[in-house]
Amino acid sequence: MSGGMVKQTIQIYARVKPLGRRQQAGIYSVGEDEKSASNLEILVPRDLAEGFVNNKRESYRFKFQKIFDQEAKQEAVFESIAKPVAECALAGYNGTIFAYGQTGSGKTFTITGGAERYSDRGIIPRTLSYIFQQLEKDSSNVYTTHVSYLEIYNECGYDLLDPRHEASRLEDLPKVTIMEDPDQNIHLKNLSLLQASNEEEALNLLFLGDTNRMIAEVRIKLTGINFTLDHLS
Ligand SMILES: Nc1ncnc2c1ncn2[C@@H]1O[C@H](COP(=O)(O)OP(=O)(O)OP(=O)(O)O)[C@@H](O)[C@H]1O
Q1: Which top-rank group of organisms is this from (predicted)?
Q2: CB under 6 Å to ligand 1: residues?
Q3: According to the annotation, is 106 in a ligand binding site?
Q4: What is the pTM of this model?
């Protein structure tokens, strides 16, 4: 997107993860009335707060575009967050959605989805499905669609759809580099761009990328174990 014709906005949403069995409830609250419904207040529990220096606050307030509480369904998250971005993409404007949060907070669940139920599908499969539905409706144009899947790990980019991914060590794979041309267009060197003509093909590539990412993760963990064993012997 270039020039100042289109308003570029960043919208920030919060999603509260459902409580696990042993987790303590009541450490956050969302504004109840219409006006404060986008305010999230985190209350630091008393036993924790007492350990703090006297003048530390015991509650923190944040404002978001919208807050998804523990009951929020994947469908609602898609409708509010991803559908408008997909619509803009179909109209020719770039869009980005990313999840940020500590480990285990639900980024993968929100972006990719949960494995157990079909209704737990996350933003990526829902968006793919939506985009292909829209393209099929438009018989006046011919579209070609491609998928790339990039992982950024320790500040280096790796191509998750590279066929060598499974066989090689992550460090041995060609690094994907980000470059900007004089017109400020971003180019990703060494990133495969695979054609996906329909939802099923796109989902297969997503699955392939996820698998390669998991293999890489296990490999990294195993390297960690080897290191510990070397240390002991
Ligand atoms: N909204 C939710 N509803 C039900 N289960 C959830 C929800 N959010 C997260 N979970 C579950 O919590 C666990 C951790 O979530 P997830 O793997 O998505 O975290 P993450 O932020 O991607 O973590 P990491 O950074 O370690 O990869 C998973 O078992 C996931 O299914």
Answers
A1: Eukaryota
A2: 17-18, 101, 103-109, 114
A3: yes
A4: 0.82
Q: Residue 92 — left, alpha, or beta (φ > 0 → left; ψ -120 to 50 → alpha)?
A: left
Tell me what ipTM this predicted complex has.
Answer: 0.98
Q: Which residue has the higher pLDDT, 219 or 98?
A: 98
| 51 CA distance to ligand 1 middle (Å) | 29
157 among annotated binding-site residues: no
Residues in the chain: 233
Q: Which of 117-121, 162-166, 190-194 shows the lowest per-residue confidence on average (mean pLDDT)?
A: 162-166
**Ligand 1 atom at minimum distance from 109 CA:** 18
Instruction: Identify the CATH class of 144-233.
Output: alpha beta
DSSP percent split of the chain into helix, strand, coil, nearest 5: 35, 20, 45
Block residue for tokens 């999230």? 40
Residue (of 138, 142, 177) closest to 157 by Cα position: 177
Residue ranges, comma separated, of all CATH 3.40.850.10 domains in the chain are: 144-233
First CA to last CA distance, the chain: 57
Distance CA 121, CA 113 (A): 4
- For residue 114, give the ligand 1 atom closest to its CA: 31
Strand, helix or coil for residue 61: strand
Nearest residue (by CA) to ligand 1, atom 16, is 106
